[in-house]
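Single Protein Entry

Contents — chain, fold
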Amino acid sequence: MEIQDIRRANLQAMVDAEGLSVVAKKFQLPERQINDMLKKRKAFGEKIARRMEENHSPKLALGWLDKSEESTLPEEIDNDLLRFLGIDREKLDFPQIERIREFVRASNEHQSEAINLIKKANTPRKKKPGEGTKGK
């Protein structure tokens, strides 16, 4: 699959989930231009893809429109977590998926740090001479 086809498929998935007018507003483009890109009447090149990504989600790393694997969350993302957050797995768009992945990545890093601190705190340390005896 060519990169422009991947971008079109991702854009189409967003339009299907949110509607053309909502997607056009998020990308700050006219509906007609989005429609023309989907129908292959307009090119969907690098420059416009990056501008669209920046307009839609400036905090995300550029290139998310180019990723075909992004249509689903990895299975390690717990359905209970999504339910707690009020998120329907099937209605996520690509920026939301990427934000959740970043959150999980950061949570895992912090969790590892916390576990190491707990292990360190629970490791018995050697007593210094005279330590631990009651003085009179």
Notes: The mean pLDDT is 78. The CA atoms of residues 2 and 101 lie 25 Å apart.
